[in-house]
Amino acid sequence: MSWSSIESVAKKNLYKKGISNKVHESLIIEKANRLIIDLFTKEAENIARAIYWSDSKLTIAVLSDSLYQEISSQEEQFIKILNSRFDGKVVNKIKYLI
Fold first, then answer.
1. How many domains does one find in the chain?
2. 93: closest CA among 82, 84, 85?
C-alpha cells in the first residue's frame, strides 16, 4: 500500500462530496468582485456584484444603468483578465441582472 499525500486525499474527498465545485465557484465570484473594484471604482462594490457562476457563465447584479453600460462595454476585457487569474478559461459569458 502506498502513502498518498494529504493534499491528494483531501482533494479526492472534497471532489467526492461535491465541495470542490462550491469552493471553485466561491473563488471565481470573489475574484470577479475584486476585479469590479479594480477596473471601475471602490464605489462600484456597492452597485455591482458577481453573485453566481455556473457552466462558465458569471452572473453580475448591477444597480446602476451607467455602471452596467461601463461593465458591458468592457466585458471582453473583464473576462480575459478574470480568466488570466485561473488555470484555464473559467468564464465564457457574463449574464446581467439589472
1. 1
2. 82
